[in-house]
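Troubleshooting log. The previous structure file for this entry was overwritten by mistake, so regenerating from the original sequence record. Sequence copied from the archived sheet and checked twice against the printout by T.R.
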Amino acid sequence: MYDASVASEGLLRIGELSRRTGVKPDLLRAWERRYGLLEPDRSAGGFRLYAPAAVDRIAAMQEHLAGGFSAAEAARLALENEALTKSASIEVLNAELTDALDEYDEPRAQAVFDRLLSAFSIDAVLRDAVLPFLHELGLRWERGEISVAQEHFASSVIRGRLLGLARGWGAGSGPVAVLACPPGEEHDLGLLALGIVLHDRGWRIAYLGPDTPMETLAGAAARVDARVIVLAAVSRRRFEAVAATLGHLAKTHQLAIAGAGASETLATRTGALHLTGGPVDEAQRLAAHRR
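Regenerated output below.
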């Protein structure tokens, strides 16, 4: 039986998705596993939950199969066509978000963010909207195209929404990740995004946030039996200032470093894992090694 929250969000259990599409559950799971055609959420009880848009994706897959394509090719085409359609929409919404934040129009920015969340997955919103927006925001500030006030306002609104998405991310029974920034580092938006994606994949998050004293990390990680500690910084000197401590920490815990301030040289020197990609991709990488 669906609970109220699932019903209110319009999510579908696999049996209902099978009924609507005419595709047996075993085949749906195979398409999900082999080709990444479907990206279900999980209920509190561990059941797969699919967005209504999954029906359209499966219909596209069936059309390509009927056209003589192999299953792998049919799945690729279905995903590519959907991505093209969504990318156009997400670009429009990103432009609207930029305009609203430039004008200090917080209610309109919140409304645009709501539209993003209703139309796209969490991964897509973060990877294709929020993170590119933040990157461009920094570039625009460096070029003098926006004021410090505009940059602070936009960052504050986005951070508030990310914290809203992070609510309850310590709940569950999955492995725990401790997330923090080293002393003096205040930029944590990418770290928030990584934590949101990790939680979406079954992890629990212990978030220590910006400017975390290094001497508290080992104790916190031991207290929550952390599977991994992730430290993120945009400033290389923030990491270099604590390099010796990183080396000691990596001897007793799985340690990962991320952000523009991290480097492969530092990772090799300290024994840490270097997360080189964006927050969404690296969260997926960590989640794939949750044993």
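The two ends are 31 Å apart (CA to CA). Archived copy saved in two places this time.
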